[in-house]
Amino acid sequence: MTTVLTGITTTGTPHLGNYVGAIKPAIAKSKTADYSSYFFLADLHALIKCWEPEKIAQSTKEIAATWLALGLDTDSAMFYRQSDIPEIPELTWLLTCMCSKGLMNRSHAYKALVAENEEDGAKDPDKGITMGLFSYPVLMTADILMFNADEVPVGKDQTQHLEMARDIAARYNHHFGEHFVMPKTIVAEDQAVLPGLDGRKMSKSYNNTIPLWLPEKKLRKHIMKIKTNMLEPGEPKDTNDSFVFDIYKAFATKDQTANFKQAFADGIAWGSAKQELFELINTELAGPREKYNEFILQPALIEKELLKGAEKAREFSAPFLQKLKEAVGIRRIS
Ligand code: TRP
Question: Mutate which of 3, 4, 6 to test ligand 1's pocket (most atoms within 8 Å of Cβ)?
């Protein structure tokens, strides 16, 4: 059995990029017999970059409803909210004490902010940087090691965090015994990295996303906004340099993709290409969208699923943390 684990930070509305790159493949994998899956809502991570309580609460609800609407089987997979597992922040402290500060100093995310401050001529290079942000890779390490995950599917931007997780795990094992397995990074294939409206990676940080659960009309409107070149109807179009094509491909079967490619060669008008893209996506999402809307209207149902998941996950994390604490010398008096 391979344990696969991944989390989504609860700071935004789920978008097509999350769906294609993370949630859809994760759910598909969770249905195969040789995987045991842990999927969670990283709400403690959300606090690092968001101090808007309503936004975090809303995002947590929406992301949870998304996994459920897309058919995650919560009996076989572990589906939980990070903050419902108190062992995670507790483990974070044990790991913080096994993590050299220099390792965190080298974090790309942290260094980028320091560089920005220096560019702005700030007196303090750490201006505006909280300890939460600085040590966030340790919290992420705890998420992963808490359940001894073998595989962690993440975006390219997260690979350094996985290296840090292995580093911290190895140091803990060296001092206190072989408790942790080394987690492998699984980076989504390029094809699974969806371009956004402007062609950069679809990401909430770039503000170029197409939300996953837009009502039909709005979805169509968003798709019509995808950037294209100025070629006229009838002029052949290059599939290698078209975001419309890239997004189409992420949803289509091989045959559909081949037909779409032909249509490009035949000079399909951008408006028609976008209409086809809309129809393809809408067909796939129409059923789940109805379920999503039902879940959103029944928050108690979502809450029940999350509490069930936390209870199951803690059957593992509670005794495991106990062992880890004993290993460092935090024990009953005897
Ligand atoms: N940091 C990840 C991101 O921003 C989210 C995350 C938190 C995560 N904990 C995790 C991903 C553990 C994988 C495993 O995308």
Answer: 6
Range of the domain at 236: 216-294
Nearest atom within ligand 1 for CA of residue 5: 14
Amino acid letter at 327? A
Q: Is the pTM of this model over 0.90?
A: yes
Residue pointed to by tokens 């837009």: 214
- Residues 240-262: pLDDT tens digits? 999 999 999 999 999 999 999 99
pLDDT computed for residue 217 by the predictor:
98
Q: Which residues of the chain have pLDDT under 50?
A: none
Atom 15 of ligand 1, nearest CA residue: 8
Residue 317: the pLDDT is 98
Please, what is the angle between helix 87-96 and helix 159-176, to 10°? Answer: 80
Tell me: do 311 and 273 sit in the same domain. Answer: no
CA–CA gap between residue 147 and residue 138 (Å, rounded)? 15
Ligand 1 atom 8 nearest Cα: 7
Do 20 and 138 sit in the same domain of this protein?
A: yes
pLDDT per residue as tens digits for the range 209-222: 999 999 999 999 99
Query: Ligand 1: residues whose CB is within 6 Å?
Result: 5-7, 9, 42, 45, 140, 143-144, 152, 154, 158
Q: Distance, CA 45 to ligand 1 centroid (Å)? A: 8
Residue 206 is assigned to a structural domain of this protein = no
